[in-house]
Each structure stands twice: as structure tokens, then as C-alpha cells.
Amino acid sequence: EIDLARLRQFVDFQWKEFNEETSWDSAPETSNQVKSEFIEFTKGLDALVVCHGSPRVNELVFAASPRLSLVGELEGDRFAQRIDVEAASIRKIRTVDTTHGSSYPVAEWALGMILIGLRNAGVHFRQMIAGEAWGTPDQRESLKEFAHNEELTGKTVGLIGAGYIGRRLIEFLKPFDVDLFVHDPYVPFELASSLGFTLTSLDVVLSQPDVVVCLAPLTPRTRGMLGRDEIYRIRSGAVFVNVSRGAVVDSIALIERLEGGD
Fold first, then answer.
1. Which domain holds residue 77?
2. 133 and 232 in one domain?
3. Neighbouring-strand partners of residue 26
4. 158 and 183 in contact (C-beta within 8 Å)?
5. pLDDT digit string, tens, across residues 57-102
6. What φ, ψ does residue 72 adopt, rounded to 5°?
7. Are residues 205 and 228 in the same domain?
8. In which family does this protein belong, per the annotation (predicted)?
């Protein structure tokens, strides 16, 4: 209520709830009745902010809302699914989203997963919650689970993608004095020089580092980008962290590689 009161001080706003099915991969499918209700709601608006449950903001909406100059999306990853960006551009309607609102916490999560992977903490946690004896002197000497216990400092780290999340992760990695290899076809060499990483091929990023982190966004081009061949290029004993959408990686091939004991 406090935030709403602040908002009312400088703008008149309306709110309406819609319950259209939300998908990562496709635009909302909306009945004609709901479309009519949505168009009626948007008439006379200067700006429109949408979130989960909203119908698609398309040319029909723009045509019925001549005053509309701004459309905002609160769920960044679904930006192109919920807004007809091309139609908005033609009408010179500005579109904004929150795609990078989660960049910092995702970068922190990636760093955490790197540290967990290098220490093999997942295996130890599962054994501990099972209530069995774990970590005895004999186990530490004989079991392979205790052989994998490494530090991040001085390691070689490969990043697939150097967008907002990747660049934040690069900052987090600096105190660990790692060597950074990055694959991103959209990053200029000048950025690599300024941030202190080596811009290289996907093959190098997969095959040479001690840690490989996938940070690529899910697009038609990146869907299935890490298939069986790519997964088997990751060197034995390396840590693989995926903070991209699952569809970027061939999960079946990844499980196959893990079940092989590698």
C-alpha cells in the first residue's frame, strides 16, 4: 500500500488481472473474448506494464491505443513472447523489460556452484543427509569421492557467454586469480582486453578449463547448442555449471556422460 500511495502521487493507474497460460517458448494463446477485454482495458493508456498471465501485446492493441508510448515487461525472459516488438517499433512505441534484473543473483549462484563442484560438496551432502557414517579416516583414504577436493584459486575457467551475468561473474572471479577463457561471438576483442579474459572458440572453452560455465541465453540459435559432441569435449574431472535455460544443453547426453563415471 505504501508503494501504491507513492505511485498515485505522480500517475493515475489502472490494474486488471488476466490468467493466460505462460510459456518460455511461445506466445500466450488467448480467446477472442479475452483479447477484446484486454484491448478495451488498454484504450486510452499512455503506458502499459505486463507480467505473467497477460495476453500478448500485439498490433491490435497498439491500433486501439493511439496514446500508448511505452510497454514494459516484468518477466524479462518472456519479453519477445508477450510483446510484438516489431509492431511496437514500427509505431515508435518504446519497449523495455527486466531481462537483467536477475543477473547479479544468477552470477552469485554460478560462483557458488563452481565452489560446490570443485569440492564435490554435492556428494558429501547426499551422504550426510542419508544418516550414514561419512568422512571416516578409512573413507578419506580409499574412496574416490574424497579425492576430488580442489580450490578455485589459480584454476582455468571457461565461460560460454559474456553478457550481463557473465561479466558480473568475471568480477566475482577476480579475487581467485583464475585464467579466463570466454566464447561469445557477439563480444568485441576490446571488451576481452579491458576485462582481462581470452576470447576464443567454443572448442577451447569446453576442452581446456578446469571449470566450464554455460551462460548463454536461450534463442533459436542456442537451443541444443551443447549436444553430445560438445559435452564429450569437456575434459575428464572438470566441473560443468549450467545457469542457462535447460534447453541449451542436451540433458540426455549430459546424463550419459555422468553415468560413465567421468
1. 2-97
2. yes
3. none
4. yes
5. 999 999 999 999 999 988 765 566 788 888 999 999 999 887 677 7
6. -115, 145
7. yes
8. Belongs to the D-isomer specific 2-hydroxyacid dehydrogenase family.
What's the grid cell of residue 214?
554455460
| 77/99 Cα distance (integer angstroms) | 6
Number of domains in the chain: 2
pLDDT digits (tens, 9 = 90+) for 34-43: 999 999 999 9
Same-domain pairing of 249 and 203: yes
* C-alpha–C-alpha distance, residues 241 and 226, integer Å: 12
pLDDT of residue 24: 65
Whole-angstrom Cα distance, residue 79 to residue 219? Answer: 12
DSSP 161-175: --SHHHHHHHHHHGG
Residue 89 sits in the same domain as residue 121: no
Q: Do 56 and 109 share a structural domain?
A: no
136-189: per-residue pLDDT in tens? 888 888 888 887 778 999 999 999 999 889 999 999 999 999 999 999 998 988
Count of CB atoms within 10 A of residue 81's CB?
Answer: 17
Identify whether the C-beta of residue 156 lies closer than 8 Å to the C-beta of residue 181.
yes
Name the band, by pLDDT with cuts 50, 70 and 90, for residue 127.
confident
This prediction's pTM? 0.72
Of 97, 112, 144, the residue that ends a domain is: 97
| Separation of alpha carbons 14 and 92, rounded Å | 23
Pairing mode, strands 47-50 and 156-160: unpaired
- β-partners of residue 223 are none
Q: Which of 76, 97, 118 is the last residue of a domain?
A: 97
- In this structure, the answer to whether residues 37 and 91 fall within a common structural domain is yes
Q: What is the CATH number of the domain that holds 63?
A: 3.40.50.720
Which SS3 state, helix, strand or coil, does residue 157 take? strand
Q: Are residues 7 and 108 in the same domain?
A: no
